[in-house]
Amino acid sequence: MFFLNLIIIILACAGAIYSYYNFQQQPGLAVEFACGFLFGIFIMNIWLIIKNKKINTYKRALEKEAVSSSESSSRVKVLEEKIKVLEKALTEAINR
Fold first, then answer.
1. What is the distance between the alpha carbons of residues 49 and 74, in angstroms, rounded to a whole number?
2. Whole-model pTM above 0.85?
3. At what angle do helices 2-21 and 28-95 cross, to 10 degrees?
4. Dist CA 38 CA 34 (whole Å)
5. Residue numbers of the domain that contains 32
6. pLDDT in 10s for each residue of the chain, 96 residues
7. How many Cβ atoms from other residues are within 10 Å of residue 58's Cβ?
């Protein structure tokens, strides 16, 4: 995507230079360039909105995964503690 942005910037600069040198002969060219530039900004904003939505979705998925993994580890710890208590009770029952 970086190369696409670079190409857009280069073409915009080329259009600006071309419209600057030909402004005296063709004044409508500057208006065309301005419209094209604004359209490019509009398209890039749409692209950034879509990209940010994807990033936020990915962040939420990572958060859910982190919560589920922490739940699993806490469940394992609880079960290990229960096993220790049961082993201790069993050894006490056997010793009696």
1. 37
2. no
3. 160
4. 6
5. 2-95
6. 667 777 777 777 776 676 666 666 666 666 777 777 788 888 888 888 899 999 999 998 888 887 777 777 777 788 888 888 889 888 988 887
7. 10
Number of residues in the chain: 96
Residue 7 identity: I
Number of compact structural domains in the chain: 1
- The pair of three-digit structure tokens given for residue 11, joined into one six-digit string: 């073409």
Q: Is 31 helix (H, G, I), strand (E, B) or coil?
A: helix
- The confidence score (pLDDT) of residue 2 equals 65
87 token code pair: 């082993």
Name the amino acid, one letter, at 40: G
Query: How far apart (Å, rounded) are the C-alpha atoms in residues 62 and 56?
Result: 10
How far apart are alpha carbons 63 and 55 in whole angstroms? 12
